[in-house]
Write a structure and sequence with these properties.
Distance between the termini: 107 Å
Radius of gyration: 31 Å
Number of domains: 1
CATH class: Mainly Alpha
Helix content: 40-55%
Shape: globular
Structural class: alpha+beta
CATH architecture: Alpha/alpha barrel
CATH topology: Glycosyltransferase
Number of strands: 22
Strand content: 5-15%
Mean pLDDT: 89
Number of helices: 17
Amino acid sequence: MNKNNLKVALAWLAGSVLAGILIFFITHSAPPVANPAAVTDSPSLLQMLKSGSTAGRNDTFCALTTGPDNSCLGSPQALCSTDQEMAQIAWQYFENNYNPETGLYNAADKYPSTTMWDTGSALAATIAAHDFGLIDAKVFDDRIRSMFKTLSNMELFNKEAPNKVYHTVSGAMVDYRNQPAPEGIGVSALDLARIISWLNTLSCMHPQYAYPAQKVIERWDLKRLIKDGQMFGLYRDPTSKNMVVAQEGRLGYEQYGGKIFRELGYDQHVAATYNNEFRETINIYDVPIAYDRRDPRDLGAYNYVVTESYAMDAIENGIDAENRPLLDNIYLVQKRRWEQTGILTAVSEDNIDQKPYFLYNTIFTAGLPWNTTTDKGVRYDSLKTVSVKAALSLAILYPEDPYSKELAYNVSSAYNPERGWYSGIYESGGGYNKAITANTNGIVLSLLLYKKYGEFYPICKRCERGLKPKLMAAKTCDACTTE
């Protein structure tokens, strides 16, 4: 063996000896472990490398990025394929009418204007769309956070509460013609109740949004809006420009909104009960129908007895001993009209696709049964409609009654698959009422969410989630004036 080969051989030998020494010290010189079980629970890196095992590793983000535990909501009822198709049609409206600049949705198709009422309906729709798998968590969060950014920064009417109308692209205060109104036009307490209801459901089903929802409401100064056990609205007198504070709400909508403010800790001993001093009863088709006796000539507001307020009270606030007989009679009187006249009946207020563009199609208003009227009392009986949102509300609340099948089937084709559900069908054979709105499509989605989970406020109370009633301490009725 020459010298070079000898050197190479000695180098290999030395390397092998050194490697053996290193392996010996690594495998035999580890410090002792106080808890032998820890060796099993937390194997050393070398042991894992040796075995190729993944024991002891957690797929951390797979576990941590899942949504909240909503088992407290109960056992959801599965939606059938028809339910899913209905939801998809309704959600198409919101896909078409979303404004990413503000996170707001148009109240009417392609018209860039909205109210807090319609924003509440849009929020309901977004919650439902995510729950039904129509949008994923990323889209849901993007849209909710964008909406919160606007709600948290929008200009308030008189620095008190949200204006009645906003432009959905700019987020600026506008009037009902969607023209700029830098000073605003007023505040509707009922509209605020609508969005509060769905901020509560959002906070319940998605607790990460409870704090920003609370902060949105805490921006508002409600001292002039919620007092004396009732709700009040604000507006500027068109002539004098003076601020007017006017009582808001009539039997039906008043209780829907009053109960929502009561949940926040406000005294609503008048507004939150149907058994208040303003309630009267009239028999229509031998069915006792409650109505509000306050005179529109004195207060400038009619009492429209319609399906929507009672249905929303049921699915959002819950059915109880007080509203159950009233809701039953709202259903029964419309069924009786169909039985005795052959006219399928499900009435509510709705946008319509011709002048005057918005009508109250009622069970009773201004002394007249089955009155179809404007907010000024002008009658349009030739434009009576079967309301899609009313028909579907009644059908889902009374699924065992044969009349519900008539209602649901009759309106089942009243939609455009690329635009959403129509507002209704004209009674007189005038075809579809092709007005398409956030409120109708939002109610369709909220009805399906109700079918899946049940009444929203009672469920959220059971979960101990939702908005916290700390905005104002509840008061006893011997001291009902707000601070």
